[in-house]
Amino acid sequence: MRLSRYFMPTLREAPADAQIVSHQLMLRAGLIRQEAAGIYAWLPLGLKVLKKIEQIVREEMNRAGAVEILMPTLQLADLWRESGRYDDYGEEMLRIKDRHERDLLYGPTAEEVVTDIFRSYIKSYKDLPKNLYNIQWKFRDERRPRFGVMRGREFLMKDAYSFDIDEAAARRAYNRMFLAYLNIYSRLGLQAIPVRADTGPIGGDLSHEFIILAETGESQVFAHRDLVEMGAPGPDIDWDGDLQPLVEKRTALYAASDEMHDEAAYGALPEDKRMTARGIEVGHIFYFGEKYSAPMGAKVTGPDGKDVAVQMGSYGVGVSRLVGAIIEASHDDGGIIWPDSVAPFGAAVLNLRAGDAGCDAACETAYKALSEAGIDPLYDDRDDRPGAKFAATDLVGIPWQLIVGPKGVAEGVVELKRRGTGERQTLPLDAAIKAITG
Ligand code: 5CA
Questions:
Q1: What are phi and psi for residue 119, nearest 5 degrees?
Q2: Distance 5 CA to ligand 1 centre (A)
Q3: Where is the domain boundary, 288, 305, 336?
Q4: Which residue range is the domain that position 67 belongs to?
Q5: What's the burial of 411, exposed, middle or buried (CB within 10 Å: 0-12/13-18/19+)?
Q6: Residues 240 and 313 in one domain
Q7: What is the pLDDT of residues 344-403, one digit of tens each?
Q8: How far away, in angstroms, is 168 Cα from ligand 1 center?
Q9: For 64-92, how does the pLDDT look when each residue is reduced to its tens digit (9 = 90+)?
Q10: pTM for the predicted model, two decimal places
Q11: Which residues sit with their C-beta closer than 6 Å to ligand 1?
Q12: 263 part of a folded domain
């Protein structure tokens, strides 16, 4: 992409009401624009990052055996009356009437819709297990939308729903999601801690939140240090095998958010293993058995010929919240530092003297080679001061900067900067391209 043709509206200063660094940087780097409280338009750079996160989530869900669908944002109130949640959900639910005076709502979550889909088609235990997910916009009329996309009213969620014949099978489904989540966050460059959690309006008795550490997080977490430092299980586990040992290795260590915190259990840990910090909830998984399947009549015939309500769980990832969470975890005074896996562009080519024949030719060569190698470069071909180009490129956080100036071109070299470390090297153009394409 040539910057002269792109739309990347960067701002020198963030609006005063942006309180936390990720919100400030998302506005300054031109990722989002607020349209109403807690409701955002995604600008080109923000949309690219959002789509990359979405794709990583999708790949890991598919790997763990979940199947993608797409449910509507608008749902029938009658379904929620069946589950008994319509009145309970309260003011967070945006209620709408259509022209026929039928009650609709903008989905804050989709247990009812997915249960309705399931019960329409699946009638036998032989068709289980099933895990259906979608990546879809949700609306919750939060009392205090704040921190930009962190607590929005409209936000993008990946929500998955598992259906099983009995509790043992449902726990296997839960375990698959538990481990898939750790792999998702690891691919996003994040260290996530699974903590025991409260189930709130979703319900159930088994639940974990996935928290990444950040000073601006809304929850306080208390955890065993070994858990904080433990890596993700990796993609090559046997997803159909016994995952319980991998899950237990993690759940055996103390970890809780404030609502579930047990001071005595935490205090019993060796002092050097106690860790408490603020964190951001980037995922939440629930096992709630028959809470929706029983009232909504989602039953299958079991091996003994008797009908039973299916055992369900639901599993959410805050996809749009993750954009902010990654920035909280990875930035410096100059701006955002994207992990390569979600960077909006793989590299930036900076032409320090657009119009100079030598600079233009070197930049075009780099731009072509990087494009062909699938790096998706952003070429700053504008006629602007070098200082402004450096600042903008640092701000938007592109992992590599290939800097082309007239002096270097005369000597047959360019400069290559790694955004994360600030490391710079001067080298021939070919070598710089090779360093980026690996
Ligand atoms: N149905 C279940 C799981 S599919 C559910 O809705 N869980 S949830 O309420 O915990 O939401 C799942 C994830 O969505 C949260 O972990 C969080 O990362 C994200 N999320 C929730 N509310 C918001 C919000 N207001 N703004 C941005 N992200 C949110």
A1: -70, -20
A2: 36
A3: 336
A4: 3-336
A5: exposed
A6: yes
A7: 999 999 999 999 999 999 999 999 999 999 999 999 999 999 999 999 999 999 999 999
A8: 26
A9: 999 999 999 999 999 999 999 999 999 99
A10: 0.97
A11: 109, 111, 140, 142, 151-152, 155, 157, 159, 202, 281-284, 314-316, 318, 320-321
A12: yes
